[in-house]
Structures are given as structure tokens and as C-alpha cells.
Amino acid sequence: MKLYRTAATGLMNFGRSYLDTAQHVISGIRSNELKLTYDAPAFALLAHAFELQLKAALIVQGKTPEEVEAYEHDISRLYADGRKLSGQDFTIDDLQGIVRNRWNGFLRTARDEYRLRLSTRLGTSDPAVLTEFGCFDNHTIGSSLPELNSQIQWLSERHAHDGSKFRYLKTGFDQHLVISAFGLNENVPMRSIQWASEALDAKLRQFLFP
After folding, report:
1. What total of structural domains would you count in the chain?
2. Residues 6+ apart with CB under 8 A from 138
3. Model pTM greater than 0.90?
4. Nearest to 193 by CA among 142, 154, 136
């Protein structure tokens, strides 16, 4: 078990290095300090970080390093099996809820800031008027939150395809979910995977170094 703990710690720390780099790149993109023609490099970093973290989680849950490496780059299967093996000692089954809560808080804050700007511009705080301009209530926001499972599937399909679509230029039609509300233009899989990766890193560190 000591060997497996060492392997899990190595994967966790390696994944954290990719996550730290991804966060730096994504922060630059969001602040317009970094302008990229393609967002694939950011996704490549996030995908590899999450893959390594999920492999660390499976080792924590009892898989051997050899069994984990057999998953290769299939993030969807890593995540699905990690959920199946979740128990009282260690679980990743709550990542979906963690990311939903992050989206809920993020969108409500964006809505409140947008409502303040809008009410100042229109000269009214009438909820009926503001709703017509897209100031949705908490129930509407809560019922429309992105699902982590879908974003993981989207990421996995591209990360595992022909050496990764994020590493090699692939021509053809592709798309991802975007939230365009409250003045936002949010790349849903990018932010969802970033939050999931941050949460999983924290869970692994708490378990391995209590």
C-alpha cells in the first residue's frame, strides 16, 4: 500500500502542475492579457491534469498503478469507474454537486452585477422589466445549470481521439456549450473541468495528507 500511496501522490502532484499551468493560461485568456487563436492548449492542460488526478483517485480507491495505466486517456471511463468505487473513505461522486454549486454561485453573482448595471441604465428596478432584459430569478438559474457529466464526456472524446484533438490541428466542425447571459460569454467545459480539477486536487490532498 505504501508503494501505491507513493504512486498516487506522484500522479496527484504531476496533475497539480498541469492544473497550475492551465489556471495561469486561462486567467490570461479571461483577462485578455493572453490572446490565442485556438483554445486547444488550455484544454490540453486541463484534460491532462484531470486525467492524472482521476488516475490518482483510482489508486487511492484500490486500483494498482498497472490497472490505472490501462485506461490510457479515457477520461470518461476513469471518471465513471472512480464514481463506482467511491465509498466512505474517499469519493469523487460529489464532484458533480460541487461544480453545480460553483456554477450556481457564479451565475447568481453575475446576474446581480448585471441587474445593478441594467437598473442604473434603465432607471428602474422593477423585476418585471428587468426580467424582460434577461435578469432571471434563482429558480431559472438553478434549473439550467450545466452538468459535469456532459462536459467530461465532451472533453474525453477529444482528449482520446487520434492522439488528442487538443494537441494536433484537426479540421472540421466542432462545438462546445457557451453561456451567454448577464454579459457573460462563458466557455462551459473549460470552467466546469477547471472547477472539477480544483476540487479533486483538494480531495486527494486531504486524503493523502490528512
Report:
1. 2
2. 108
3. yes
4. 154
Question: Look-up: residue for cell 490540453?
Answer: 44
What's the CA angle centered on 80, arms 92 and 167, to 5 degrees? 100
Q: Give mean pLDDT in consecutive 10-residue pieces for the chain, a chain of 210 residues.
A: 85 98 96 93 97 97 94 96 92 97 98 95 92 94 96 95 82 89 96 98 95
Burial 74-107 (b: 16+ CB within 10 A, else e): bbbebbbbbbebbeeebbbeebbebbbebbeebb
What is the extent of the structural domain holding 113? 107-142
Residues 57 and 151 in one domain: yes
